[in-house]
Amino acid sequence: MSQSFVHVHLVALRYFAETVRAGSMRQASEVLSTAPSAVNRQILKLEEQLQVRLFDRVSGGVKLTSAGEVLYGYIRNLERNLELAIDRIDDMRALRRGHVRIACEDGIGRDFMTAELAAFAAEHLGVTYSLSIHGAQQILDLVSAGEVDIGLTMGPPMRSDIRLVGSVPIPMGVVMPPDHALAGREQMTLVDLVGERMILGSPGYGGGSEIARHVTEASRHRPFVESNSSDNILCLVLAGMGLAVRSPVGLLAELSREALAFVPLAGRGVPVVKLCLWTHSTRTPSIAGSVLTERFLRALEPFAETLARWRAPAS
């Protein structure tokens, strides 16, 4: 460890990090409830100690130098590690406190994650949460970068650089308005979709690339609409703009009240899609994050069983 770093005060590092996040010393001072001059003094002291310029002063604020970017990266790691230490030290084994960051796809959030999280939260009143909705590829990137503790996606896509805690296969089928001519079928094949207007998930949407590839190969035409949101695909189908090949996850409320019809896909070429639970491969999770991950893992198989009614009949 260099001698200059030994004397760097945590207050100066905090003032520096808040200035980066706020974009100016004035706005950082408001967050820190101190004077802009105090922020400026701490940063000047930090630059003097490290013998390097951390910011370029620009119109309306500041901009990180290359050295500043390096320092900020290490501070973010320090903040995460400090949060983890506090989680473990501050009576976390009783789960009276803690924070868990979760990212999932919109349909998974609606039909799987919310019920499990609500039950967990009722048992552990002091734990707080950050929830974000993204496409599958972005969720995997967030898990890999350590920006979230738990990721829930439809796979593919799959990744080898993060930990797949568990997965269950999910039935695939064709979603359509209940009055569509195909809605009464017991099952159908991809070839049956020839001539139909298709609404498909775009790359990055969980299972989207695999579904689109199979459908377009079987149907010999491009999708009528392509979307990166399962919620948007649902709305388009409800509006009668076309049919969608997808899982029933995210549609359970609409299917239960028969606002939509779901016909299982059967035959060769049906894409295999799984509901996947992801965590970082090496980072030690907080106690709260670890316990919630275990709860999600235990819930995967029972949830898959509730979807059995939408599987194609055994041949």
Automatic annotation (TrEMBL):
GO function terms (MF aspect): DNA binding; DNA-binding transcription factor activity
UniProt domain HTH lysR-type: residue ranges: 13-65
Record-level GO cellular component terms: cytosol
InterPro entries named in the record: HTH-type_LysR_regulators, LysR_HTH_N, LysR_subst-bd, WH-like_DNA-bd_sf, WH_DNA-bd_sf
Domain of life: Bacteria
Keyword terms: DNA-binding, Transcription, Transcription regulation
Keyword DNA-binding: yes
Pfam families hit by this protein: HTH_1, LysR_substrate
Stated family: Belongs to the LysR transcriptional regulatory family.
Protein name: Transcriptional regulator, LysR family
Organism: Faunimonas pinastri
